[in-house]
Each structure stands twice: as C-alpha cells, then as structure tokens.
C-alpha cells in the first residue's frame, strides 16, 4: 500500500510522541473521511462496478419520478446495427410507451421524458461484494425535454424469483426476430421500480452502453442504479438468455479514474 506524504508525516509525529491520538466516535470519523474520494464527476464509460463502501452522501436533490399509473405501448426485439439475422449484441427486448404518456423524471430542475424500457442479460453494472452479475438489468431511458441531448437512465438489477412481477409482463414470450413486435397494454411503470419507500439509489455520471450510428457511446448520462433489486421468473430470464447466448451487454469499462458514486 502506498502511504501519501501527509499521512506519513502524521505517522512520524505520532511515533515521536509529538501528537497524541484521541478516540473519535465513529460518526465523527465518518464525517471527516474524504468525500468524494479519488473519483471524478466527469462522465466515465459505463458500465462500472459500484462500491457501496466508497459511495458518498448525495448532495444533489432527490430524483423525482412522475409516471402515469398505466401505459400502453409496443414490445419489440429492437434491431440495431448489424441489422436482421439472429439477435445481435446491441439488440434488446424493448418496451416503448405510446407518445404522450405523461411519464417523466425531474433531475437538477430539468425534465427528462421516458422513451423506453429495455433489458440486458446478464446485467451490465456490478455491485462490489456481490458474488456475480444479476442475470438481467432493466434500463428505463429518459431523454431531456427540449432540443438539447441529455439522458437520465434508471437501472434495476433483476434477480430470479418464483412470483411473477411487472418485469415478467414484458419478458414473457418476447418477440424472437429482430424488428418484430407486439402491443402491450396497461403496463405499470412504477411496478418496474422498487416499491415506493425503497427507492434508494446510487448515482454517477457515465455513458450509454450501446453505440449510436457513428459508433459513439454517448455521454454524459445521469445514471441511477437502485439498491433494491427487481425480480422475474427463472423461465422468463432463460427466455431472454436464449436469444443472446453470448449476452447483450457491454463489458465492465476500465476507466482511468473511477466515477464518484453518490448514494441517495
Ligand atoms: Zn441499456
């Protein structure tokens, strides 16, 4: 382990008896810990490992989620480059709400409109200390309302469970041909999120995880990864994995400086 010079000097003073160590209560210690740590608020490449132990209290206002109670839309096997054929790595199972569903989020006083909900399998984000990636990750993608480009993406890691959930409504018998779709009615967007009162999240600034037409992974993207996981039945998870035997996820990115992660 590298010891930085001020710490080393401190240790020398303590050893020489020039400084007397006092017992500091745990709460006070927490306040004096450097926060944010060595990370950056400049957008990094997504996905990343989120380490709850180094996440800082969020200084930004809480994300406000305003979703219509039930929305209709289409469920497609979204077809990106390379088009057609077998499902390819950037394709996904995607629910697109009908226009004007009045479903949006507010972050930093800006409004972002819900554009789609899609799934990656296995998950893209990883939580440090958890043994493996969740089998699926849902992304609720919101775009800035107005001419400028801007994103808020809500991420729900999805684990298997016997009981069906709202995710199962979108994952049951998904379209299997790129470009194919079907209508879905009365989706509860809020039921795709953890229950109200359990929506604490990790926030950081990253990128999209699929490239645009110019092969660019757009950034900045405001990422919100919920601490509490969602669920889907093992059968429906397997149905998604069967479409992408190699997975439809971007691998963890090796950023030179990790992002500052805030917990809220
Ligand atoms: Zn995604």
UniProtKB/TrEMBL annotation:
PROSITE patterns reported in the protein's UniProt record: ALPHA_CA_2
Database matches in SUPFAM superfamilies: Carbonic anhydrase
Biased composition (Basic and acidic residues): 77-94
Keyword vocabulary terms for this entry: Signal
Region (Disordered): 76-95, 166-186
Gene3D superfamilies for the chain: Alpha carbonic anhydrase
Signal among keywords: yes
Keyword rRNA-binding found: no
Domain Alpha-carbonic anhydrase: 1-264
Position of the signal peptide: 1-30
A family per Pfam: Carb_anhydrase
Cross-referenced PANTHER family: CARBONIC ANHYDRASE, CARBONIC ANHYDRASE XA-RELATED
Protein's name according to its UniProt entry: Carbonic anhydrase family protein
């Amino acid at each position: 382990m590298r010891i930085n010079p001020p710490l080393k000097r401190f240790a020398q003073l303590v050893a020489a008896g020039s400084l007397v160590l006092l017992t500091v209560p745990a709460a006070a210690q927490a306040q004096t810990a450097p926060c944010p740590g060595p990370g950056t608020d400049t957008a990094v490449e997504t996905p990343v490992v989120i380490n709850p132990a180094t996440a800082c209290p969020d200084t930004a206002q809480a994300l406000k989620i305003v979703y219509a109670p039930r929305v209709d839309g289409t469920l497609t096997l979204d077809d990106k480059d390379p088009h057609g054929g077998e499902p390819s790595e950037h394709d996904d199972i995607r629910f697109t709400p009908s226009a004007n569903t009045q479903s949006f989020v507010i972050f930093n006083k800006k409004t972002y409109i819900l554009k789609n909900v899609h799934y990656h399998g296995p998950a893209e984000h990883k939580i440090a200390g958890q043994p493996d990636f969740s089998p699926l990750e849902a992304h609720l993608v919101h775009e800035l309302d107005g001419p400028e480009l801007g994103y808020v993406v809500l991420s729900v890691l999805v684990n298997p469970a016997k009981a069906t959930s709202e995710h199962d409504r979108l994952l049951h018998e998904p379209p299997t041909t790129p470009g194919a779709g079907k209508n879905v009615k009365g989706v509860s967007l809020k039921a795709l999120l953890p229950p109200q009162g359990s929506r604490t999240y990790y926030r950081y600034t990253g990128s999209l995880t699929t490239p645009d037409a110019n092969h660019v992974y757009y950034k900045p993207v405001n990422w919100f990864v919920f601490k509490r996981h969602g669920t889907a039945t093992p059968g429906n998870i397997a149905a998604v994995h069967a479409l992408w035997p190699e997975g439809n996820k971007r691998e963890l990115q090796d950023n030179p400086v990790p992002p500052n992660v805030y917990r809220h």
